Amino acid sequence: MSKKIQIQDELARLFADSHFKYRKINPTPRLRKSLEQGFVxxxxxxxxxxxxxxxxxxxxxxxxVAAVLITTVPVEFQSKxxxxxxxxxxxxxxxxxxxxxxxxxxxxxxLLGKRCSGKLEYWQKDLIPWFxxxxxxxxxxxxxxxxxxxxxxxxxxxxKTLRESFEKAGLHILPARSIKDIDSYIRLIKxxxxxxxxxxxxxxxxxxxxxxxxxxxxxxxxxNPPLLVYRGKTLCGxxxxxxxPAGLDGKKRAAFGINLNSKMQGKGLSRALYERILLELxxxxxxxxxxxxxxxxxxxxxxxxxxxxxxxxxDRGVARPFPKDHFKLWL
Length: 331
Ligand SMILES: CC(C)(COP(=O)(O)OP(=O)(O)OC[C@H]1O[C@@H](n2cnc3c(N)ncnc32)[C@H](O)[C@@H]1OP(=O)(O)O)[C@@H](O)C(=O)NCCC(=O)NCCS
Hints:
single chain, 331 residues, alpha+beta, Aminopeptidase, 11-stranded mixed sheet, binds coenzyme A, Acyl_CoA_acyltransferase, N-acetyltransferase domain-containing protein
């Protein structure tokens, strides 16, 4: 086995071990293999592409216990502008490896460059103050959810008021019926995120929107169109879901977009939308869902629905998008 493959396998094992430990999961060999493969394809592959650095920490017995990975990637989906990207591997509860990672970063700070972003796992959150001191702040928090549990908690929390404001506002939800409906919905998403790019900057990227459009058109062809919110005939928002690779439990998992136009926001309407999308996910046999967010309403609803935090995306923004305590619910 070549040295490179051996290190790749060790990193993949550490990545999988740390996630299984965090979620207290005793994985089947198949599940472990799929998570390790996911790491190699999704996380490690870009690290082998361009300059950066790979720093390894080993125990006395030469076992890999932590790693710092720094590489160069496009700033957005298919962009030709590049930035540095970082990732840290460590086991939950291993604070000495976090100290080690901090000193590696400190010594190699120049590798992070002027533009950089990266991910920290939940159990690495003690490193956030160091990143913040270097001007690299949290952009979004990764929230996971269990569909049955979320629906139960949502209903228990809001009781009779779950659909009240939605119905009073004269809103109703219909599946998209044509390509034209989907295109109108994409325009609505673009317009809302252009007003608030801090909640989804990638939406400004035409390639990303083209991808979402194609995805939703395909979903429609397969009998799973996005669900659109109307007042009379006016489009006011929508819910779009996609199937993503299985989670740590090996079961069917989804990600979804939830959108209202700005006139409809801040009126307690999202709870009815959450109920609808969770019911839809249940109907289609999904078990869990996840998404990255910095949106205050979504973060608050996440608490109500018993979601749990996987980690954080950090970046060195040109302008700091959020006030200091923005993510306090999830730290
Ligand atoms: C995301 C979205 C659907 C949320 O809906 P909303 O109308 O803003 O939120 P709601 O009025 O339903 O509020 C939901 C909960 O969050 C709380 N909340 C909303 N905005 C908040 C804020 N700025 N700070 C703290 N809490 C907030 C509400 O008080 C409510 O909790 P409560 O029932 O305990 O009072 C809507 O803002 C939207 O479509 N935004 C544009 C697209 C977008 O950003 N999508 C999400 C990307 S991750």
